[in-house]
Fold:
Amino acid sequence: MSGRGAAVAVGIWALFNAVLAALLLGFRNNLVEMLSWGATIATLLVIVALALRSGDPPVRVVPEASASAVLVAVAVALLVLGAGVGLWAALLGGGLALVALILLAREVHG
Amino acid sequence: MGGRGAEARGRHGAEARRLSVAIPTPTRPLRGLAGYLVGTDHKSVGVRIFGTAFGFFLAGGVLALLMRSELARPGMQITSRDGYNQLFTMHGSTMIYFFVTPVALALGTYLVPLQVGAAEIAAPRVNLIGFWLFLLGGVIAWSSFLTRNGAGAAAWTAEYPQSDSIGTPGAGMDLWIVGVWLGVLGTLLLGACILATLVGRRAPGMTMLRLPVFCWAMLVTSLMVVTSFPALLTAMGGLLLDRHGVHVYRGAYGASAYQDLFWFYGHPVVYVMFFPFVGAALQVIAALSRRRLFGYKGVTLSLLAFAALSMSVWGHHMFTTGQVSNDYFSLTSTMLAVPAGMEYVAAVGTLIGGTLLLRTPMLFAIGFFVQFLLGGLSGIYVASPPLDYHVHDSYLVVAHFHYTLLAGSVFGLFAAVYFWWPKVTGYLLREGLGKLHFWIFVVGTNLTFLPQFFLGYDGMARRIADYTAADGWTTGNTISTVGSFVIALSIVVFAVNVVVSWLVQRPAGPDPWEGQTLEWATSSPPPRQNFDGPLPPIRSAEPLVDWREERARAEATAS
Structure:
């Protein structure tokens, strides 16, 4: 199924957002507000571009299970936890992330 | 893996090409602990998100009962003032970050691939990572109760400087921030997978204007997720750094910048917790009215407009700060009434002239629209700055958002649960217990939240742990507390229904409601690749209605 229809839908939504953002320019605004909205519209344009590129997906093998994906999640949690509870968690998370990403790459490209 | 994949491609052959995926052995879903830990089937992940989120709902509900018990009478009876701060912080955080948002995305994770005729969700590994980040985030946020200073205590908004290292010291607040950050990242990934499925995994014939209305609701929901959730990650990341010595928000406009970033997430997330249930309720109403949805194209356009507008109203949370344009945000907030009205027109237009089956999902769907009306109308009220100045941070606001989120969205959630339970489990929930659940829930929610409008208008501030008898708020608070226990009773009835229906199962068959969308064209529960046989032709947003009509015409011609 072509992604053109989805691109149009997302594009309409991006247009609505752009109009509302432009309207705010006519009122009192600040940098954070305009940056947030600018980032939103930029993200939507990327999604539109990706949707336009998408077509019928090729036959692909989807995993029944993925232990390495779970390891990635645990590693990210430890990395972020490190910012709150101490360097040891971040180091543990960093090491685990390395292992998890290698395993994930092997699983995906197996 | 590659060998097994090639083998699977060969073995599944034409069927795999039709479904665009091949699934290596074993082709039956993993069950038990292994399935819970590492299984990637979107249906299993959806059920896991739902189960985990419902667990958080029960935990957050217990906190609500403790708060309501404390407020039932003047004086401090249950907890300390600091303990109360932790209770309302963890209650709000749990319900928003770890219950309603993820449970809305759980519906999408389970149903969207089925409704678009896909064999899998896009990026199933990312989907699995999203589930685990959400689960770990919730556990970490709740683990903050175990720290010396207790849990996070700066409300679910963690507004700066209340949430800085001076306002809320201790590791508990750090753990809360980390937990929320991970939970939001997890739900962001879940939303991205749903969006990618809608964009790139639709079956042949499933054009955008043939998407079921629930899928349209999930489309706008996931768009809001991927565009607004990064703002929360930025705000909370900055807050964590600020608490550890990096001066992120300490400038003259720091607190305002935090609020801008937070509410750029904080208001859209309200609609992330709303749109999926609008879509679900409209589908339930259409199926159980035996009619096609009234004004389908208008609904899709209004959903797009509604979602865009809801990205533009965050500043109404900051009317009283003097840091935003009240004119602009008041205008956009009031304009929300227009697309919201379209959803009501669609619901009422479908009901009128329909053959109504007043089964439990239908009751909850109608209840959703009726209950939400109170929340929506009071939202228009507080969208006006002069009125908002009067009721800001009062119990009127508490009543407003509980009418949108509990009396609104949770009604939609239960409509969805009762409607799709047979598809997910293969057996029916009991109608009698379902209706009992509905009516107790109606009584409980209105008993709890209606008095809060009056309390708020009378000046009772939100987030206070105590009041005096002279304030005159005792009666309203006592009624509200009784109501909260009635809500709890309704949840017990639901739990009894689940257990009874599981112990003595009544098989549902593939299509117990004469559903309109593709998920009802497969077995209950669906197989690993979602569809065993060929999909019915997709010529509208209700392919099964087309199919039944064609079959009836063919039978009439033959006879």
User: Anything to note?
Assistant: The first strand of chain A starts at residue 60 and ends at 61. Chain A touches chain B through 63 residues (CB under 8 Å). Chain A has a mean pLDDT of 92. Chain A has four helices and one strand.
